[in-house]
């Protein structure tokens, strides 16, 4: 089976390593490594559950000819920096030729029209990553689709530094997300990098991944108020009000002026039936908090966050 790919950036006689691994162009090494290990578990003969000689042959070709070279290219900081420089130049050229560029996949067409290209791009890549290698015979086409997304993203963000900026746009139009402070990209600490990634993931409802980033941040700085407030927002989106309250309380103990905690803790307290004196409200309030939400709207704050992901 041929693994030749002609879509997206591949059509420029270029190998799109980010598309092969299905990570965003602004992904940092930790994300790249995590994704590579996920793919290896799927494709490597020692860990995969592939049946049939054809599947095993395709998996071996994907791993040896595309996946391993992609990881080798992107795992070294110097190589990755040089590669990103090439992509930035390609983005400038693509922006100049935007009128003549045609994309074939629906996801790329939607990204062309998206109001917030960064958030839409991250969401699209995350969704495709879940099923990228479900059908190995179609894997090269899926990689081509991802590369089209990369092409559109580069074209629409031409001139910007390739980084992962926090977005001020909510994932669901018309739905309010917490107002969070923007973290610096230059000279930021390792904890700040974890928090920035967690904030981005929170805004596109990738809650489990956001939790991992925040747990790593708390290991480094357990007394970081912003980290506790973001962790509280993760629990709030999951309708785990008691856990959200614990982290909001921690955030305010560490920083009484924490904006997120000041805005949302009173709402959580009210939902839990807690008065200003700290006492619990009526027994009905207790029972309501203990009962799991079965409305399909994501719990008490489902209306604020747009509900559970479909």
TrEMBL record:
<dbReference type="InterPro" id="IPR011990">
    <property type="entry name" value="TPR-like_helical_dom_sf"/>
</dbReference>
<dbReference type="InterPro" id="IPR019734">
    <property type="entry name" value="TPR_rpt"/>
</dbReference>
<protein>
    <submittedName>
        <fullName>J domain-containing protein</fullName>
    </submittedName>
</protein>
<feature type="region of interest" description="Disordered">
    <location>
        <begin position="160"/>
        <end position="182"/>
    </location>
</feature>
<feature type="compositionally biased region" description="Polar residues">
    <location>
        <begin position="165"/>
        <end position="182"/>
    </location>
</feature>
<feature type="compositionally biased region" description="Polar residues">
    <location>
        <begin position="274"/>
        <end position="285"/>
    </location>
</feature>
<dbReference type="InterPro" id="IPR001623">
    <property type="entry name" value="DnaJ_domain"/>
</dbReference>
<dbReference type="Pfam" id="PF00226">
    <property type="entry name" value="DnaJ"/>
</dbReference>
<dbReference type="InterPro" id="IPR013105">
    <property type="entry name" value="TPR_2"/>
</dbReference>
<feature type="repeat" description="TPR">
    <location>
        <begin position="191"/>
        <end position="224"/>
    </location>
</feature>
<keyword id="KW-0802">TPR repeat</keyword>
<dbReference type="InterPro" id="IPR036869">
    <property type="entry name" value="J_dom_sf"/>
</dbReference>
<feature type="region of interest" description="Disordered">
    <location>
        <begin position="272"/>
        <end position="310"/>
    </location>
</feature>
<dbReference type="Pfam" id="PF07719">
    <property type="entry name" value="TPR_2"/>
</dbReference>
<feature type="compositionally biased region" description="Gly residues">
    <location>
        <begin position="297"/>
        <end position="310"/>
    </location>
</feature>
<keyword id="KW-0677">Repeat</keyword>
<feature type="repeat" description="TPR">
    <location>
        <begin position="225"/>
        <end position="258"/>
    </location>
</feature>
<feature type="compositionally biased region" description="Basic and acidic residues">
    <location>
        <begin position="286"/>
        <end position="296"/>
    </location>
</feature>
<feature type="domain" description="J">
    <location>
        <begin position="16"/>
        <end position="87"/>
    </location>
</feature>
């Amino acid at each position: 089976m041929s693994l030749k790919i002609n879509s997206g950036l591949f059509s420029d006689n270029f190998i799109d390593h980010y598309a092969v691994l299905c990570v965003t162009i602004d992904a940092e090494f930790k994300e790249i490594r995590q994704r590579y290990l996920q793919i290896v578990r799927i494709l490597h003969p020692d860990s995969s559950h592939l049946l049939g000689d054809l599947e095993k042959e395709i998996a071996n070709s994907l791993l040896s000819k595309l996946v391993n070279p992609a990881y080798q290219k992107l795992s070294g900081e110097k190589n990755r920096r040089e590669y990103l420089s090439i992509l930035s130049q390609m983005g400038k050229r693509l922006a100049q030729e935007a009128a003549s560029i045609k994309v074939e996949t629906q996801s790329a067409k939607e990204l062309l029209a998206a109001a917030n290209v960064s958030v839409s791009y991250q969401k699209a890549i995350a969704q495709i990553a879940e099923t990228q290698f479900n059908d190995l015979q179609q894997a090269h086409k899926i990689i081509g689709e991802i590369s089209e997304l990369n092409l559109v993203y580069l074209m629409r963000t031409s001139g910007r530094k390739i980084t992962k900026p926090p977005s001020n746009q909510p994932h669901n139009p018309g739905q309010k997300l917490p107002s969070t402070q923007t973290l610096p990209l230059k000279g930021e600490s390792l904890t700040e990098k974890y928090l920035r990634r967690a904030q981005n993931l929170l805004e596109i409802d990738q809650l489990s991944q956001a939790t991992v980033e925040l747990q790593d941040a708390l290991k480094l700085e357990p007394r970081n108020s912003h980290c506790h407030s973001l962790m509280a927002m993760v629990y709030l989106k999951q309708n785990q009000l008691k856990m959200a309250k614990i982290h909001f309380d921690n955030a305010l103990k560490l920083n009484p002026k924490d904006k997120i905690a000041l805005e949302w803790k009173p709402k959580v307290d009210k939902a839990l039936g807690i008065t200003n004196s700290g006492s619990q409200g009526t027994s009905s309030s207790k029972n309501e908090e203990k009962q799991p939400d079965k409305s399909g709207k994501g719990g008490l704050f489902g209306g604020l966050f747009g509900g559970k992901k479909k």
